[in-house]
Amino acid sequence: ILGRFIIFYEDRNFMGRHYECMSDCADMSSYMSRCHSCRVESGCFMVYDRPNYMGNQYFFRRGEYGDYMSMMGWRDWIRSCRMIPMYRGSYRMRIYERENFGGQMYEMMDDCDSIMDRYRMSDCMSCHVMDGHWLMYEHPHYRGRMMYMRPGEYRSFREMGYGGMRFMSMRRIMDSWY
């Protein structure tokens, strides 16, 4: 298979009209009216329940998701998706206790299943991803809602629409996941 792609289906269990996506798609409503199942043929994707990469996020890797809505507890269907590029290099991210890179700072180069246990840090409100692609989770041990982080500065999770969320664990998206 050349390239990475995901196929979205209007109905559960890969039925109904479908749309093949090989790149980022900010608004799937122009291709289909609903989406209740998908199949990742290759690669990794972040899917969102709102257009323009907003709302709840979920990470999909190669596999079949015949009824992802009940699996994830979503009440809405996928509205946008982002392809996660394959990355083979070092990983580095700085997490900060407060917005605008304030408070305690810790530099991470590997997965962390609990920032409270590792750093005695009760909140993470901003970060700077220097290298690699990461998933940040609402709860320890990689549970709860998640957010995809690619290289860049994230000065305020609150201003990004994650005001009521705390990120308590972080995981690298590894090339072995593809």
From TrEMBL:
Signal peptide: none annotated. The keyword Repeat applies. It comes from the Eukaryota. PROSITE patterns: CRYSTALLIN_BETA_GAMMA. GO terms for molecular function: structural constituent of eye lens. Residues 43-85, 132-174 form the Beta/gamma crystallin 'Greek key' domain. One of its GO terms (biological process) is lens development in camera-type eye. It holds the Pfam family Crystall. The keyword Repeat applies. Keywords: Eye lens protein, Repeat. InterPro entries: Beta/Gamma-Crystallin (IPR050252), Beta/gamma_crystallin (IPR001064), G_crystallin-like (IPR011024). Crystallins are the dominant structural components of the vertebrate eye lens. Belongs to the beta/gamma-crystallin family. This is Beta/gamma crystallin 'Greek key' domain-containing protein.
